[in-house]
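From the thread on structure requests for the teaching lab: each student submitted one protein with a one-line request. Submission from student K.M.:

"Model Elongin-C from Bursaphelenchus xylophilus, tokens only."
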Amino acid sequence: MVESDKNEPSVRGENSSYVKLISSDGHEFIVRRDLVVTSGTIKAMLSGPGQFTENESNEVNFREIPSHVLRKVCHYFAYKVRFTNSATEIPEFSITPDVALELLMAANFLDC
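Reply posted by the TA:
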């Protein structure tokens, strides 16, 4: 039996603090649950019993979102949580023109 690394975040179990987001090109992003629920869509998929298997597996597959866009979305989740209701000056969240349209479509789908 292989012992798991205690420093590695786990996405197993309904009370897991982490969620695995999988891009259309197969890249996996393990992100804290409190960050991903910034997305209304992901929050609905992960909350309570219902039609989504994601709330049991803590994995969400995005067939239409490539890794370069999903990476930026994950950065935005952290940015939004960090600076929402912050008393400090909020820095600009930079978006390069080459990813802007794809990011807009992903943000619309993810409701964030």
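TA comment: The mean pLDDT is 88. Residues 67-83 form the longest helix (17 residues).
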